[in-house]
Design a protein that fits this description.
The complex is a heterodimer of chains A (573) and B (231). Chain A has 573 residues and is mostly helical. Chain A is built from 24 helices and 6 strands. In chain A, strand 5 and strand 6 form a beta hairpin. The longest helix of chain A has 34 residues. Chain B has 2 domains: 46 residues, no CATH class; 157 residues, Mannitol-specific EII, Chain A, CATH 3.40.930.10. A 5-stranded mixed β-sheet of chain B has the order 3-6-7-5-4, with helices on both faces. Chain B has a two-stranded antiparallel sheet with strand order 1-2. In chain B, 28% of the residues are buried. The chains are: A mainly alpha (573), B alpha/beta (231). Chains A and B meet through helix 8, helix 21 and helix 24 of A and helix 2, strand 1, helix 3 and helix 9 of B.
Chain lengths: 573, 231
């Protein structure tokens, strides 16, 4: 009976109570399978929707299809599930930073449906970020169902993301690296092992249901030293494209925000614009994996001008889709833009130095993808492993690393916060474990509060001296005798000379000694802010006051003590 | 072991809110099961050591460590007793005869104490003025297993003690304490009495021990009242 009752509290079973690694591994399998299934479901419905709409795509009015899709997806998010637009990864990161990975149950399907509508109808976006959100929400809710604690929940959120990416790309290492590098930011074996297991489970699900196929067929490339030098230039171009895409997305977002029309009409406008571009350049529509495949095979026959134009068009289309309220991820567009940029670059150098026999343009398409993914996410490892896995191209690993590393560094130089983090960093909500900001945000004023003796303003210095005798404190808050309201603080350092002057004992009341200009803290204040103010005013202690009543004293000594404990506890695992 | 969350927080010297948050965040090896908390002391101890925290659970049996109360003048003076007409013309002689009268000490200790007292007098005189001297060893006696003792000696004739105010000393309180803390506590109380000029006048009447003790008891009451007032 007890075992039956406790199945929902696996963390308190004797087997798992003191070492939850085994528990997390078991949970990771479950989460990995579930998020893998979610990814497969999205993939299948995208294919189905694509086929359903295929026969009407050649009509002249087909350009409104992306508009209808985007509008429906926006309406669905706004009216039915009440969630914000966008791809969801910042939300996952925010919840991992602030709320121990708590995510709503409906997040596990909402983005799947909305992105399916957006992408299936031709919007320029990718299915990966929605799947990440959904996998993360699945992990979070499984953890909630089993009453796991925050740390375990965050790990399962990572597992969900890893399982989703692994499943949708059939790329276990990329999923694992993405979850650790982007979602959790913590390279610890407690996280890595369950996430690796979830990746395996997610990949296995996708392989069972869709067969073990690599997204882009692989060709053998012969890379010369000269090609590696050419990579440097490519890295610069991909970094520029990444920055352009990031800026363009933000610009579109800002512009659409100014338009005084309902959200769903905004999405429709964006979708419509994409549809019109799509009439002339169909390569921009949808997730675009088909064209990537062609480019890697080197069968993309268009000339330099066309490819360059297509790259720009894809960037604009993606910004229009996502910036104007469509729902979807940035991964797939990055791959398409990357490959377009790679091919453009190849055409460019082939045009400039026609005598040199450059490696096949497919190789540059591949490197371009890595450069763009690394540049946009500022996650070099994710870029490298993803491309290696989805192309099976271990042979190009050396130029791949070079392009990824340089592209990431350049983008980081120009845009310090990546596409996913920009918003969070701006709002100060991006908190990696074990960092100063995280420690301070976890601690609360309540936890560092010190009690001390209060005095009132009519007390004689003589009585006060007696209080000083038995007190260890340097600060004495003064309260009003009648109302109990906080009046100010007496700092021992300020009145030291008077303490030794017996003649003043009966001549001075405490009201005359108060430092009433001292800054006060509210119990709900952020400790980082409190510390900043302490430094600004060169104070070592500040009184905490709520509703005009003195609550306690907050001192740097106690804060630092608690800070260190918190840091030790956070980093020891 | 079953401890409430309050007791755990106390044992770790942490605020309750911190411990609760750590449990929620899974940073401390304690599990919440229903409304209670489960933990293994050995694991918690190991964790605390790894995180540089102290974990000292309340001991069973000794429910509460007794609040350490410092002894007062009255009992210390009563223990030491009062002696009158102490003979001697200079400091060493007076001290020697005084030490010999302290009956709680063994002969061996007496010799040692005498040397220590002289040593202390050589640094500065313990004559604190108004004809009073408080000889004491600079550090507590090696064998610190004794109770604080103040022995009062009225001298046969006032002698020059090289006191600060040059007044000849007519009364000595020899202060023997097991620790510096006791010493300071008693010294501060004794100084409080001596600061009062009426008390000096009273001492000059060479009062009997009972009268002296009851006077001291009065002073102590006053001191305690002042202390209680400001709490």
């Amino acid at each position: 009976m007890r075992i039956f009752k406790s199945w929902r509290y696996p963390a308190s079973l004797p087997l798992f109570r003191f070492d939850d690694r085994l528990l997390l591994m078991l949970m990771a399998v479950v989460v990995g399978i579930c998020s893998g299934l979610a990814a497969v479901a999205l993939n299948r419905s995208l294919i189905a929707l694509f086929e359903l709409l295929h026969h009407i795509r050649h009509y002249w009015w087909a350009f409104v299809l992306p508009a209808i899709g985007a509008a429906l997806s926006s309406l669905f998010l706004e009216k039915i599930v009440l969630e914000g637009a966008g791809h969801g990864v910042p939300e996952v990161l925010y919840s991992v930073s602030r709320y121990g990975g708590l995510l709503r149950l409906r997040s596990s399907y909402s983005r799947l449906i909305s992105s399916c509508l957006t992408i299936g109808s031709g919007g320029s976006a990718g299915p990966e970020a929605p799947v990440v959100m959904s996998g993360a929400a699945i992990g979070s809710n499984i953890a909630k169902f089993f009453s796991l604690n925050d740390r375990q929940r965050v790990t399962l959120v990572g597992c969900g993301a890893a399982g989703a990416i692994s499943s949708i790309f059939n790329a276990p290492i990329a999923g694992m690296v993405f979850a650790i590098e982007v979602i959790l930011g913590e390279w610890k074996s407690v996280n890595i092992v369950p996430i690796a297991i979830a990746s395996v489970a997610g990949t296995e699900v996708s392989r069972l249901l869709q067969g073990n196929q690599i997204a882009f067929s692989h060709r053998q490339f012969n890379i010369d030293l000269l090609d590696i030098f050419a990579c440097l230039g490519l890295a610069i171009i991909t970094a520029a494209a990444s920055i352009l895409l990031t800026r363009m997305l933000r610009f579109m977002h800002g512009t659409s925000g100014k338009a005084a029309i309902p959200l769903w009409t905004r999405a429709a406008v964006g979708g419509c614009a994409v549809g019109i571009i799509g009439i002339y350049l169909p390569v921009v529509l949808g997730e675009g994996y088909h064209s990537v495949r062609i480019m890697i095979e080197g069968a993309f026959t268009h000339g330099l001008a066309f490819v360059a134009l297509a790259s720009l068009a894809k960037i604009v289309a993606t910004s229009l889709t996502l910036g104007w309220g469509g729902s979807g991820g940035i991964f797939a567009p990055c791959l398409v833009i990357g490959s377009l940029v790679g091919v453009t670059y190849h055409h460019g150098i082939a045009f400039l130095w026609p005598s040199i026999s450059w490696v096949n343009e497919g190789c540059f398409a591949l490197l371009g993808m890595a450069g763009l993914i690394s540049g946009i996410l500022q996650a070099p490892l994710t870029g490298i492993f993803l491309i290696v896995e989805i192309t099976g191209g271990y042979g190009v690993i050396l130029p791949l690393i070079i392009v990824s590393a340089i592209s990431t560094s350049l983008c980081h130089y120009i845009e310090p916060a990546s596409f996913y983090l920009k918003e969070l960093v701006d709002r100060g909500h991006f908190l990696r474990p074990g960092t100063d900001a995280r420690v301070l945000s976890d601690l609360s004023v309540q936890e560092v509060l010190e009690d001390c003796i209060t005095v009132n303003q009519n007390m004689l210095l003589r009585d006060f001296v007696n209080i000083i005798k038995i007190s260890a404190s340097n600060y004495f808050p003064v309260e009003d005798e009648e109302t109990g309201n906080f009046l100010g603080v007496i700092h021992l350092g300020d009145i030291r000379p008077y303490l030794f002057n017996r003649e003043m004992y009966d001549a001075v009341v405490l009201g005359q000694l108060i430092d009433s200009k001292i800054e006060v803290v509210h119990p709900d204040d952020d400790l980082a802010e409190v510390l900043r103010r302490m430094d600004e005013n060169r104070q070592f202690s500040m009184p905490v006051v709520m509703n005009n009543k003195f609550v306690g004293l907050i001192s740097k000594t106690k804060l630092l003590d608690q800070y260190r404990k918190e840091l030790m506890v956070q980093t020891d695992q | 072991m079953k401890l409430t969350i309050h007791e755990i927080a106390q044992s770790l010297y942490l605020p309750l809110s911190t411990v609760k948050r750590w449990i929620r965040q899974g940073r401390i090896p304690i599990h919440k099961s229903g409304s209670g908390y489960v933990f293994n002391e050995a694991i918690l101890n190991k964790w605390a050591a790894a995180c540089n925290l102290t974990f000292s659970p309340p001991q069973k049996g000794i429910e509460k460590i007794q609040e350490f109360e410092l002894e007062n003048l009255f009992s210390a003076m009563k223990r030491g007793g009062v002696f009158y007409d102490l003979k001697g013309d200079d400091i060493p002689v007076v001290l020697e005869s005084a030490v010999n009268k302290i009956n709680v000490l063994s002969d061996n200790t007496k010799a040692k104490l005498y040397n220590l007292l002289l040593e202390r007098e050589n640094i500065t005189s313990t004559g604190i003025g108004k004809g009073v001297a408080i000889p004491h060893p600079r550090t507590p006696l090696a064998n610190s297993n004794y109770n604080p003792t103040i022995t009062t000696f009225f001298l046969e004739k006032p002698i020059d003690f090289a006191a600060l105010d040059k007044k000849p000393v007519f009364v000595m309180f020899i202060l023997l304490c097991p620790s510096v803390k006791h010493h300071l506590h008693l010294l501060s109380r004794l100084a409080f009495c001596i600061r009062d000029d009426l008390f000096i006048e009273f001492l000059k009447t060479y009062p009997s021990s009972e009268v002296l003790f009851s006077k001291i008891a009065d002073f102590e009451k006053e001191l305690d009242r002042a202390k209680n007032n400001r709490l």
